[in-house]
Amino acid sequence: MTPLLWLGALGAWTFVVVFSIDGWTRPGYHPVRHPVSALALGPRGRLQTANFVLCGAAITAGAVAVAGALDSGVLALAIGVFGLALIASGVFPMDPMRGYPPGTPDGTPTEVSGRHELHDRAGAVVFLSLPVAAVIAAFAVPDLVWKWYSGLTGIVTLALFFAFGQAWEKDSPRTGLLQRATIVVGWLWLGLLFAYAAR
After folding, report:
1. CA atoms within 13 A on the CB side of 26
2. Are 109 and 97 in contact (CB under 8 A)?
3. Measured between alpha carbons, how far is 14 from 53 in angstroms, rounded to an integer?
4. Distance between CA atoms of 134 and 116, rounded to whole angstroms?
5. How many CB atoms lie within 10 A of CB 120?
6. Which of 27, 34, 158, 174 would be 38's cystine partner, CB 3.0–4.6 Å?
7. Domain residue limits, the chain
8. Could you give the CA distance from residue 19 to residue 154 in angstroms, rounded to a whole number?
9. For 149-165, what is each residue's pLDDT tens digit?
10. Given pLDDT bands bounded at 50, 70 and 90, which one contains residue 1?
11. Where do transmembrane segments lie in this chain (predicted)?
12. What does the pLDDT average to over 122-140?
């Protein structure tokens, strides 16, 4: 099962690398303001869609091996839910808004599509299941350092997620930055957890 754990780690870290490079090089896209999900729109949108689906699938596959490696079916389930929700985020992309793709009105539409609503629900599961997984890991992983690291990750990612939510509601110019902070902290922990379980 070790290859599945390394696949999960690769999925978590690749997701961050891909959206980081794509976001900084995408014409008309502003990483500090726009969310990662907006990268699934526009001429290069398929790249981020694939990033959601393939990395989500890799993480879900890795979750299967976590149950045996760390002797915690509950932790494996939480990570699996996270991976599946990441896939759903790619299958149901958000609507164009807030100036992206270029030419889109700079604001939030009063009505959104059903696809966008499904994306929002999948995103909520993504950003809530990860802190839950981290808290579960704080109890399930025997190593003391990992207990503290996991518990702290759960607290920080949850706090950052709520900060991101408030920024999104206010259309803050730092919305994308807050979301990226949440993702980097959480996905880094997840990749390292897979690597720890593999060893």
Report:
1. 28
2. yes
3. 12
4. 28
5. 17
6. 34
7. 2-198
8. 22
9. 999 999 999 999 999 99
10. confident
11. 49-67, 74-92, 122-141, 148-168, 180-198
12. 98
